[in-house]
Design goal:
single chain; mainly alpha; 3 domains; rod-shaped
């Protein structure tokens, strides 16, 4: 036990020695050392760096290709072609005659206009192709339009010519009709030769000539009717004025002033028709007065009572005539007035005849009554014994 104890003590001692050594070393390390003063450090400014050499210029980009003059000429030719076809189709009413085709072709043209690009050869070629497509569509439309337009014009010319003939052109104005026919033939020839504008102008003039012939000849026929019926007496000054206008229109027509001829002919026709209408009105009034005179004669003999059926029939016809007159249907009124006048007179005659018969019957009845009275007196005398 003692031995163990001594060993333990020795161990403890050894531990204490080690701790002393450690703490001594630690205290020595914590004491700051004495600093030595060093000479100040002088910082030298470094010399400036040499200037950097200038950057080399960028290499130029390769030049874009430029359209050739031939390509630009092709584009301009396509543009002119499309514009000409579009103008031609429009002048002859292609938008009206063929609205759907016009819409499609015009869209192609507008697209070509909007997308025109002359920056590069490729863009010029693309623009040219678009204008060519528009031109082809517009040219097809123009051909259809021209054919249809002239077909309509020819039909109008034939219709106008037939009206002029019906108005008496062959009989009254054959030379004027031949001149209009010549213009029609010339218009057809020019159209077949591709001179569309000249064809249209000549067709327009021929149509005016046919129409003027119709109007003028119709006015002349009205004038002849006025003369035949003697209606000029109702407005002699107006009749003379219409004649002057008609003669002036003929002179304008011969001088080629078709517009002025149209103005004069229209006014002359208006005046002739007005005079004719006035004439029919006065003529109807005359027949109305004649019918009223016959009616009054019938009333004077009391035909409305003695011959009521006959008088009422005449009165019904007269009423129709009066209604027509009030509505300015003068020719119809004249027919009724002419018809009813003898009917009124017939009712008067029948009344007189019936009155005569009645008077004769009354006379005979009175005679019979007188004879009966005489016979009665004789019988009475005989009965009284007195000689008759």
């Amino acid at each position: 036990m003692k031995k163990i104890k001594n060993g333990r003590i020795w161990g403890i001692s050894r531990l204490l020695i080690i701790l002393v050594i450690i703490f001594g070393a630690a205290s020595c390390g914590s004491t700051p050392p004495v600093e030595e003063e060093l000479p100040p450090v002088v910082q030298e400014t470094p010399p400036p760096a040499p200037a950097a050499p200038p950057a080399p210029p960028p290499e130029p980009e390769p030049a874009a290709p430029v359209p050739s003059q031939a390509e630009l000429d092709s584009l301009n030719a396509a543009i002119a072609r499309a514009e000409a076809a579009r103008e031609l189709a429009g002048e002859f009413s292609g938008d009206y005659l063929f609205p759907y085709e016009w819409h499609d072709a015009d869209n192609l043209y507008n697209l070509a206009v909007e997308q025109t690009d002359t920056a590069t050869p490729e863009s010029v070629r693309d623009s040219t192709a678009r204008y060519i497509a528009a031109a082809e569509a517009l040219e097809a439309l123009a051909r259809s339009t021209l054919d249809r337009s002239f077909e309509i014009t020819l039909q109008e010319l034939m219709d106008a010519r037939n009206e002029a003939i019906n108005a008496g052109a062959f009989r009254i104005a054959p030379d004027y009709l031949s001149e209009a026919d010549r213009l029609t033939e010339s218009a057809n020839t020019n159209f077949q030769n591709g001179d569309y504008h000249s064809a249209r102008e000549e067709a327009f003039n021929a149509l005016n000539m046919y129409n003027l012939l119709t109007t003028g000849l119709t006015a002349f026929q009205v004038r002849e009717e006025i003369e035949r019926l003697g209606f000029s007496r109702y407005d002699s000054s107006g009749f003379a004025s219409a004649d002057n206008l008609l003669n002036g229109a003929i002179n304008d027509y011969l001088a080629g002033s078709l517009g002025m001829a149209r103005v004069r002919i229209d006014e002359a026709a208006r005046r002739y028709n007005e005079i004719l209408n006035i004439g029919w009105r006065f003529y109807a009034l005359e027949h109305n007065n004649a019918a009223l005179a016959q009616r009054q004669r019938a009333l004077d003999v009391r035909a409305d009572i003695a011959s009521r059926e006959e008088f009422d029939s005449a009165q019904a016809v007269y009423s129709n005539g009066a209604a027509a007159y009030q509505e300015s249907r003068f020719q119809e009124a004249i027919v009724f007035f002419i018809q009813c006048a003898p009917m009124f007179d017939a009712s008067r005659i029948i009344t007189l005849e019936r009155r005569s018969i009645a008077e004769d019957a009354l006379i005979r009845a009175n005679q019979r009554m007188a004879e009966s009275d005489e016979t009665a007196r004789n019988v009475e005398a005989i009965l009284r014994g007195v000689a008759p």
